Amino acid sequence: MALLDNKTAIVTGASSGIGRAIALKFAAEGANVVIADTVEQPIEGGQATADMIRSAGGTAIYVKTNISDWNAVDALAGATLDHFGRLDVMVNNAAIYTSTNLIETTPEQWNRVIGVNLTGFFYCNKRAVTQMLTQTPVNEVRGRIINISSQHGMVACPGDFPYSVSKGGIVQMTRQIAVDHANDLIVCNAIAPGKIITGKPGVANDPDALDYSRRRTPWPRLGHPNDVTGAALFLASDMASYITGINLTVDGGWMAG
Predict the structure, then answer these.
(1) How far is CA 195 from CA 7, 66, 207, 244, in A?
(2) Can you tell me the distance from the alpha carbon of 162 to that of 115, in angstroms, rounded to the nearest whole number?
(3) Residues with catalytic function
(4) FRET label pair with 91: which of 14, 27, 101, 146, CA 20 to 30 Å apart?
(5) In angstroms, rounded to a whole number, what is the distance separating the alpha carbons of residues 168 and 212?
(6) Is 202 helix (H, G, I), strand (E, B) or coil?
(7) pLDDT 10s digits, 77-122
């Protein structure tokens, strides 16, 4: 039996990159997947994630969502429940960055990054937990949350002050939810990817930045989105029992070096 049969999952930022890979993997394992993103078309080009899932015989819908807006997050949950009646897995992946240090970061940039990466995660987690509390437990679990953090929530991201601060906040948010809602049978974990090559524009794929990441990563290649999907599938499934509050690092050994 597929690991996520009869489960319903929301994945934010699922039109592209890591979120897209997670959504595709979850659908392949039997989940109903809700693609939540500000745009439907992938940065990498090609077929939209929900269309790709449906083409392969899976079940998916796309809901245009700006997670920094509470009303949009509430509407996302409503659409999920209207279609599928339940929310089993919430994957918070959507994030933005500015590539600015403390001095360079304007108040507007700070507010925008924190608004998506931290407040947006707060909104999504709050709405998910509110729903999960109403649900009958299955195999001792009412629902599972996976927050995509970063190695840069534990060590500084050179020259990207708001991003690093937001990711550090996500790691602590994960612990807090896990502890506060363990008695409610709600599981909350994070995944901290290392350098994962995606189609996102700008400094992330700058040759100097890639060179730095290659030198910093012990494993002899950088990561791909599919490297993160296995960890996400594990934490979303009943295989992960008695595990809550962790920040699972998927980084080719970066944090060990």
Answers:
(1) 30, 25, 13, 24
(2) 11
(3) 163
(4) 101
(5) 21
(6) helix
(7) 999 999 999 999 999 999 999 999 999 999 999 999 999 999 999 9
